[in-house]
Amino acid sequence: MIEINAPKVSTFLFRGPPMKISINSSQLKRMAMDGQCYSGMFHYALTKLQSITSNLQALTLLSTREAFNMPVSPDKLLHLRNLKIYCCGMENFDFFSLISFLKSCPALESFFLSAGPHLDVRQDSIIHGCSSAVSSHTRRHVAGFHQGNLKKVTITGFCSSKSLIELTCQILESCSSLQCLVLDTTGGYDNTGICDSTEKKAVMEALRGVEAIKKYIKGKVPSSVNLEVLEPCGQCHVPKLRKLGPC
Predict the structure, then answer these.
(1) Quick check: 124 and 131 in contact, CB under 8 A?
(2) pLDDT digits (tens, 9 = 90+) for 52-64
(3) What angle is formed at CA 171 by the lines to CA 59 and CA 178, rounded to 5 degrees?
């Protein structure tokens, strides 16, 4: 276990397996929990962080394995405004389960999700017949869920995963305050706008992601939301910005 008795601690950065943590500080507002090479960090955050700090405003989570389903009734992080989640190499992860975070953070204003990179076609791909189509009759959704403060959502490594499409559609339907939705089908790029050693398989999956956006998401974007799509160039793999909504 970790026990910290420092009443002025405002930032806590942790890397390792989920464990018992006690921090005696009412000023703790920023946390980063890196569970790389371990399992269960997302589940831990939804069930344990509220007991560590009740005033958290910014949270970054990284996980490579999630062995448990997201809790049905997660703890409330009432003051959290900025959330970043990195899913590293979890090819079969159910992205829709992350709706648990949006339900537990009513004050959330900014949500960033790194969903990739994806070097192979996901098993739940909705493109080219790998999975059933996502329609209002077949996709999952949380009835009655509403989030009234979320303004910006960014998803990098956006792919043709059905569960990722379902998560995005739920956000569009449930977040009335949403102003900007950025879907980056690449794995992220530097300030020069050049892909970092993008492999051919990753480029092909990115293009499937663009096709999925056009088919299943574009038509659901309200006129009040600015949709920006980043896609790789077919010749040199330089991501280019495509605006599919009003500026």
Answers:
(1) yes
(2) 988 999 999 999 8
(3) 80
E strands in the chain: 2-4, 11-15, 21-23, 30-39, 58-65, 82-87, 110-114, 152-156, 180-184, 226-231, 240-243
193 domain-assigned: yes
How far is 160 from 58, CA to CA, in rounded Å? 29
177 lies in which domain range?
A: 109-121+147-246
Q: Which residue has the tokens 């910005």?
A: 241
- The pTM is what? 0.86
- Which residues, listed in sequence order, are joined to residue 231 by a DSSP beta bridge? 240
In a domain, 113, yes or no: yes
If we measure between CA atoms, which residue out of 164, 173, 177, 186 comes closest to residue 224? Answer: 177
Q: What does the alpha-carbon distance between residue 79 and residue 2 come to, in Å, rounded to a whole number?
A: 23
- Per-residue model confidence as pLDDT tens digits over 121-179: 566 777 655 555 566 556 788 888 899 999 999 999 898 999 999 999 999 999 999 99
